[in-house]
Each structure stands twice: as structure tokens, then as C-alpha cells.
Amino acid sequence: MFPTRSRGRTSAFGLNPRPPNVCVHFITFGSTRGQPPMRMEVLLRIDVSIMPPPPSQLLDMYTGACPELARYFFSMPGHETSYRNLFLTLEDRLESLLSEPRLRPGGCVAVLVNCTAGMHRSVAVAERMARDAQEEFREDGVVVEVEHLDTDVECGIRRVQRAMVGTHSRSVYEDNTIGYAGGVYVGY
């Protein structure tokens, strides 16, 4: 992980992270199959379709969850810089959400990441972003989950079922509003 801004907050529980304030679901999908239905607030939408993919021999062998493909992808010109900018945007959104007075402990938000097929670029970005977010916001009570909707399309798993797992219908706000959670669309 790269150095980030210090938020100047520490957990009231010392070295142990406090109970979850919010669960962030990183959900990847392919734009050719369309955006999945969401039953939770979308904190951030990221389209990485414009970022050039790794060579086809890697794409044929691996998904973005494989370290070999991810290493190659982030070593491509401009990809690391784009990732850092995306992560700074995510940091800003999460900091804003965590300071929201109406925040409901245990609520859920989604970070949607898409590319063309939903198997390579979006998966590499979401996997890394989830790891970095978990590390950066652990003491703030943030937990992360990652779901790749289109990496196993051949297996016949229905993506609608996969998009509805977890406690997605629980609002992050105390007053149960299903509203704007600071979501923005970022395309690279």
C-alpha cells in the first residue's frame, strides 16, 4: 500500500478495531452484461474500461484476482497513478460517510467497479482497493467484502443472486433513508 493522509483518528479500543461501523462491498461486473441491481447505497462507481488490458495470453489464463495478472496490470504505464487517484477518491468518500451523524453502525454501501468483461481489469482494481481500504480504515470499524459477478459466468451462477448476498438492504443511515451516500462516478 502507498502512504496516505493521516486522518488523525484512533480507535477507542486501542489496537483492536472497534465493531463495524460500515461494511463496504466491492462489486465487479462487466459492462457488456449491464450494471447489477443494487439494494444498498452506492458510494462510488468506477469504470476502468478505458484502461488498456494486459496481453491476451494473460487474459486467457487468469482473472484479475491472480497475482500474476494484477502485477502486470498495475505495472502498465499510467495504471498505478490512476489507481492512486481512485483510492484517494474512495478515501474522501469513506471519511465523509464515517463522519455522517446519521451513520448506522453495521450499514452497507457498495463500490461498483466495471470493465468490459468484468473478469480482469475491474477485478484487479477491486481486489487491491478492498485490501487497501481494509488496511486504511480498519481502526474506523470498516469491514470489506468483495464480490465478482462475472468471473465465473461459465459456471452458470446467476449474477442477480450474487449481487443480493449479504445485508445489502440495510441502510447506512439511522433514519433508514436509502439515499445519496456521496456516490460519484469516476471513469478512467
Word description of this protein:
By secondary structure, this protein is of the alpha/beta class. It has five helices and five strands, in the order ββαααβαβαβ. A five-stranded parallel beta sheet has the order 4-1-3-2-5, with helices on one face. The longest helix has 20 residues, at 79-98. The two termini are 20 Å apart.
SSE inventory with pairings:
Layout: E1 22-30, E2 41-47, H1 56-61, H2 67-75, H3 79-98, E3 107-115, H4 121-137, E4 142-148, H5 159-163, E5 184-187
Parallel strand pairs: 1-3, 1-4, 2-3, 2-5
Helix pairs in contact: 3-4
Q: Assembly type of the shown chains? A: single chain
Radius of gyration: 16 Å
- Mean pLDDT reading: 78
**Which strand order does the major sheet show?**
4-1-3-2-5
Strand content: 15-25%
Which structural category do the helix and sheet elements fall into?
Answer: alpha/beta
**Quick one: overall form?**
globular
Largest sheet: 5 strands, parallel
Q: Low-confidence spans: pLDDT under 50, at least 5 residues?
A: 1-17, 154-162, 165-188
- Approximately how much helix is present in the residues? 25-40%
Distance between the termini: 20 Å
What's the count of strands? 5
SSE succession: EEHHHEHEHE
Question: What is the number of helical segments per DSSP (H or I, 4+ residues)?
Answer: 5
